[in-house]
């Protein structure tokens, strides 16, 4: 027997895979007892199949049954015709032909209202001509709710039939059963009518293991342990009937006696589910959840809480009932849970966030507020933005989080309004005083008229100044908030965040053109946002125009042209700036792959239509490559451009010449072959398959070796390194495996949160790029170190391409955009992460001292070359410092001892300075004294040159560890770095100023040579530059290893930062004077291509055209 499971639609009463559930028995028994029943549940839960089954059982008992499928009646705007349709269905269903002439009967009662007509049909026809018990089934009841006219009377009539049993015993013969996606409260909507409050609810639950014997039968003699397999399926589906039947059929189709249920589900259902949702199931759930914009936010918010907490208490609210009808959640023991792991994987937190972002006009702000644990008030809405959000929210049912966010925003807006009001009161007071002065002066008389007029003018000028200051203060508050918002936005939308920062920066620049000092700026966050974004941004442009997912991208060998291939069946060609050149339409389905020939004069494409094609850049087809039996997933030219390789879902790869002649077919994979790559010498081909293997072949089709393990985890992409010594494969397990050409695994790239769809080596071999369904692309060193993450796409990234010089990357995504990224400043060198315990840098920045945990001290030049080493005879050194004259090196550590050497390693002195560990040490500017910082927060000054060394003074700077100490050039100020705070003590009056920015320990602090700026470095790799008043001037993020030291160079123009491994990174120090304008110029230059292709964005930053045209130094220090 060819056993087939039924995926979708109603099952016949005798279908071999029908699973009889408790609900079937409950429904049959309730109907036999004469109870009106309703089976209300989500779609594809087996309601109609249950109706068919129960109808057959009742008919077998000799009872009369008829079904009215609401979808068969249509949605005619005429109420009378609709009721006549119901009557006709009942007339035919009970086989009353020959008993009455239905057309005549209806015509005779045209003067009656539609519901009266149906009532008379039940009483005068059904109860008269149909003997015995009568069962009427109304299916797809929810379709009634979408009709343009009210059917409250229809359900009132059903209730009337039930109530009539008390007065007319004939009505006891009639029983109704309703089926659909609805709740009883949906049926009668007019509040003045009695609600639909009759009938017995039949709860339709998922399959249980004890019930699914009919499904298990299909696996007999086909798989080992059928019972275990069906149990594994139920674990994934939660017994959801449609999914259970579908997965059973998928397993039957694998022809494996020991199928991996999880792998089959992930590959054939969860991964890229949108393209595999046939018959439609998941889209139905999503549509039900999102179809009503007024309710969608509330439903998503409830579902989000269930995802976050595992379950929530069921309160029988309309919103929770509506959520249950989507099928996404299920009620168990008084709580709501996600129905099954498949739904949890598809409708995951990222999906919910994306959908909420589409609904909310303030999505970025609310996410930032949530990430701050609801404490960062800078993320809240104010002013017109808040008013717009409130206007949008009216009439909508939102999530609890939305209401909390809007309420917090209103409270903050109210507080700020009160502050503004107080400012205005002060301004009005100034205005009143000025007016009184003006009046007094005017009243002096004609003898001093001229003086009076001048005095009045001065008073009015003072009033205007006061108003200007009030207005500037308001603008400053807004600009400060705008800068902070732009910086947060950078985490998800880099290029858009730069536009936002430019807008704020330009407005700030227009205010401070008067030449005021930096400390008089009304806001500084736009500058910080611009500096941080420009120092870290990599996205250059967005290519928009495709109407579907972009599956493939390619860059021409000369770097002048970009090709994108899309689900919409087109290939688009763009110039390097992102301007559209041409759109090519040569396939009858989605285009999955595009590749340039080595000479750049042709492209090859692979399509869903089972062909690959070669065409020139004008779209003329040069050759068609037919022969694959299913979709062609990839196409690539050989290095010499004389042949091509294609791969297909049919499990083969094929080699072709340029004329379209098939040269060889590579067979051996057990599943779809998703990608193929030529080795650099063109003599071998590697293929990646969903069967879990990468196979390497010679051109004649001989299998040379196989990598991976069959039927474990699929490979989606494969790439050779430029020297041919490495092969990288993108695996379903969210990693990339890298093997040498002997098949030995060299590295695994771990870091993506979802499937990796593509991997490719840069043509220079310096880095590897990966594209993932987690919405990011990552750049890695060949040894597996993550170098950068490219964020900005809103959905899965399917492909990534790298320019020949390695300075540009292009990505393609299901968000229908391709993006261009600048990787010219990518740090690709790998550094040894040696186990060092302390580092220090000499005054001129040319030498670094490193202490290892075994007590060895080494001096390195700025390139990392070892100059000299000597033993310290100390255990656990925590800090090293050079004296300002460069002649001495001091070390402190766990035992509270201070030890000092000359540069050659000869001991100068040592002494016990503290009973607790010392974590920091620094020399005074004259090199004659030093200062230590301890684990108990004490700072102590020493005369280290006296014999013996003596303590001069001490003070407690903090309650935490003092990680570093610095002295101002004049020696009058001591800066101590602790957890999240730097405290600056003025030794003249013992006053203290604190610089606070984060909660991480601050490992380094340094004064500039002129004493006007302070640099800090924290454990998370964030370097900051401050003025002495505590204003943040700049902030830099240092990628990679922990940084241990920071120092200004002697000329004050650069900051040196030293990492644990001894690397020295330098950053330029910009003077606050003209710094803002320099940042604006850099930002405008960076966005040049983007603004040229996005005229709407250009309107936001039109002032870019007024800045100097000379190209500034970009990303200084990187």
TrEMBL record:
The keyword S-adenosyl-L-methionine does not apply. WD repeats lie at residues 543-575, 584-618, 625-659, 666-699, 708-740, 749-781, 790-822, 870-902, 911-943, 995-1029. Transmembrane segments: none annotated. Keywords: Repeat, WD repeat. This is AAA-like domain-containing protein. It comes from Pannus brasiliensis CCIBt3594.
């Amino acid at each position: 027997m060819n056993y087939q499971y039924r995926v979708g639609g109603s099952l016949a009463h005798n279908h071999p895979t029908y699973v009889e559930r408790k609900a079937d028995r409950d429904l049959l028994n309730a109907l036999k007892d004469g109870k009106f029943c309703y089976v209300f549940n989500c779609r594809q839960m087996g309601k109609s199949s249950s109706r068919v089954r129960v109808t057959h059982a009742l008919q077998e008992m000799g009872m009369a049954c008829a079904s009215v499928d609401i979808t068969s009646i249509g949605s005619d705007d005429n109420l009378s015709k609709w009721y006549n349709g119901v009557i006709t269905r009942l007339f035919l269903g009970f086989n009353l032909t020959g008993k009455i002439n239905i057309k005549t009967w209806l015509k005779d009662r045209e003067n009656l209202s539609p519901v009266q007509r149906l009532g008379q049909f039940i009483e005068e026809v059904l109860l008269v001509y149909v003997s015995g018990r009568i069962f009427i089934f109304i299916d797809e009841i929810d379709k009634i709710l979408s009709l343009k006219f009210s059917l409250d009377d229809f359900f009132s009539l059903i209730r009337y039939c039930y109530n009539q049993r008390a007065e007319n015993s004939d009505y006891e013969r009639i029983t109704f059963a309703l089926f659909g996606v609805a709740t009883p409260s949906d049926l009668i909507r007019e509040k003045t009518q009695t609600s639909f409050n009759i009938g017995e609810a039949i709860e339709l639950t998922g399959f249980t293991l004890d019930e699914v014997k009919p499904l298990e039968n299909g696996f007999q003699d086909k798989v080992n342990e059928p019972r275990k397999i069906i149990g594994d399926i139920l674990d994934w589906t939660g017994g959801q009937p449609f999914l259970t039947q579908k997965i059973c059929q998928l397993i039957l189709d694998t022809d494996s006696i020991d199928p991996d249920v999880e792998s089959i589900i992930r590959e054939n259902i969860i991964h890229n589910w949108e393209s595999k949702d046939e018959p439609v199931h998941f889209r139905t759930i999503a549509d039900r959840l999102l179809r009503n914009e007024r309710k969608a936010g509330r439903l998503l918010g409830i579902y989000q809480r269930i995802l976050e907490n595992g379950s929530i208490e069921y309160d029988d609210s309309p919103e929770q009932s509506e959520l249950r009808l989507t099928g996404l959640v299920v009620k168990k023991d008084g709580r709501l849970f996600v129905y099954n792991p498949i739904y949890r994987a598809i409708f995951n937190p990222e999906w919910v966030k994306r959908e909420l972002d589409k609904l909310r006009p303030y999505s970025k702000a609310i996410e930032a507020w949530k990430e701050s644990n609801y404490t960062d008030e800078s993320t809240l809405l104010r002013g017109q933005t808040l008013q717009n959000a409130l206007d949008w929210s009216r009439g909508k049912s939102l999530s609890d989080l939305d209401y909390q966010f809007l309420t917090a925003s209103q409270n903050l807006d109210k507080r700020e309004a009160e502050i503004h009001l107080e400012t205005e009161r002060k301004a009005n007071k100034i205005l009143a005083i000025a007016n009184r002065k003006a009046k007094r002066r005017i009243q002096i008389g004609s003898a001093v008229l001229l003086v009076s007029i001048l005095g009045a003018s001065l008073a009015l000028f003072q009033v205007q100044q006061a108003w200007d200051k009030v207005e500037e203060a308001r603008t400053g508050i807004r600009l400060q908030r705008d800068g902070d918002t732009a910086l947060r936005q950078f985490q998800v939308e880099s290029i858009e965040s730069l536009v936002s920062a430019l807008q704020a920066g330009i407005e700030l620049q227009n205010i401070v053109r008067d030449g005021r000092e930096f400390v008089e700026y009304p806001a500084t966050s736009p500058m910080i946002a611009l500096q941080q974004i420009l120092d870290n941004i990599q996205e250059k442009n967005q290519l928009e125009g495709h109407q579907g997912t972009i599956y493939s991208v390619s860059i021409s060998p000369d770097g002048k042209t970009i090709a994108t291939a899309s689900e919409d069946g087109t290939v688009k060609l763009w110039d390097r700036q992102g301007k559209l050149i041409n759109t090519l339409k040569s396939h009858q389905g989605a285009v999955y792959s595009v590749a340039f020939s080595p000479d750049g004069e042709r492209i090859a494409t692979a399509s869903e239509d089972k062909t690959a094609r070669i065409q020139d850049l004008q779209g003329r087809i040069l050759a068609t490559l037919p022969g694959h039996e299913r979709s062609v997933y990839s196409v690539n030219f050989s290095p010499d451009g004389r042949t091509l390789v294609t791969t297909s879902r049919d499990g083969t790869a094929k080699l072709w010449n340029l004329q379209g002649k098939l040269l060889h077919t590579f067979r051996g994979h057990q599943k779809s072959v998703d990608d193929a790559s030529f080795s650099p010498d063109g003599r071998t081909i590697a293929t990646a398959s969903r069967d879990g293997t990468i196979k390497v072949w010679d051109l004649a089709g001989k299998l040379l070796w196989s990598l991976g393990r069959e039927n474990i985890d699929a490979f989606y992409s494969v790439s050779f390194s430029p020297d041919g010594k490495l092969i990288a494969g993108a695996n379903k397990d969210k990693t990339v495996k890298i093997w040498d050409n002997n098949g030995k695994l060299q590295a695994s790239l771990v870091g993506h949160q979802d499937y990796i769809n593509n991997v490719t080596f840069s043509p220079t071999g310096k880095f590897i790029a990966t594209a993932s369904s987690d919405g990011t692309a990552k750049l890695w060193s060949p040894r597996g170190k993550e170098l950068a993450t490219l964020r900005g796409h809103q959905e899965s990234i399917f492909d990534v391409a790298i320019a020949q010089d390695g300075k540009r990357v292009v990505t393609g995504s299901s968000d229908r955009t391709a993006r261009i990224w600048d990787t010219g400043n990518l740090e690709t060198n790998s550094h040894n992460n040696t186990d060092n315990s302390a580092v220090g840098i000499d005054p001129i920045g040319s030498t670094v001292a490193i202490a290892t945990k075994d007590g060895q001290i080494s001096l390195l030049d700025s390139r990392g070359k070892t100059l000299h080493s000597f033993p310290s005879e100390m255990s656990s050194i925590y800090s090293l410092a050079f004296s300002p004259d460069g002649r001495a090196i001091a070390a402190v550590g766990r035992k509270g001892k201070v030890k000092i050497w000359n540069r050659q390693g000869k001991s100068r002195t040592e002494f016990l300075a503290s009973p607790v560990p010392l974590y920091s040490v620094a020399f005074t500017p004259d090199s004659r004294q030093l200062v230590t910082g301890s684990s108990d927060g004490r700072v102590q000054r020493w005369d280290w040159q006296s014999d013996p060394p003596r303590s001069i003074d001490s003070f407690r700077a903090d309650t935490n560890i003092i990680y570093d100490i610095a002295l101002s050039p004049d020696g009058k100020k001591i800066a101590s770095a602790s957890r999240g705070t730097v405290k600056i003590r003025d030794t003249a009056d013992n006053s203290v100023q604190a610089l606070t920015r984060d909660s991480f320990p601050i490992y380094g602090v340094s004064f500039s040579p002129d004493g006007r700026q302070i640099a800090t470095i924290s454990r998370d790799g964030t370097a900051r530059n401050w003025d002495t008043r505590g204003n943040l001037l700049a902030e830099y993020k240092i990628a990679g290893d922990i940084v241990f030291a920071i120092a200004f160079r002697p000329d004050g123009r650069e900051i040196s930062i030293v990492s644990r491994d001894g690397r020295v990174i330098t950053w330029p120090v910009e003077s606050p004077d003209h710094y803002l304008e320099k940042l604006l110029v850099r930002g405008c230059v960076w966005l040049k291509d983007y603004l040229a292709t996005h005229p709407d964005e250009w309107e936001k930053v039109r002032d870019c055209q007024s800045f100097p045209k000379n190209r500034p130094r970009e990303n200084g220090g990187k």
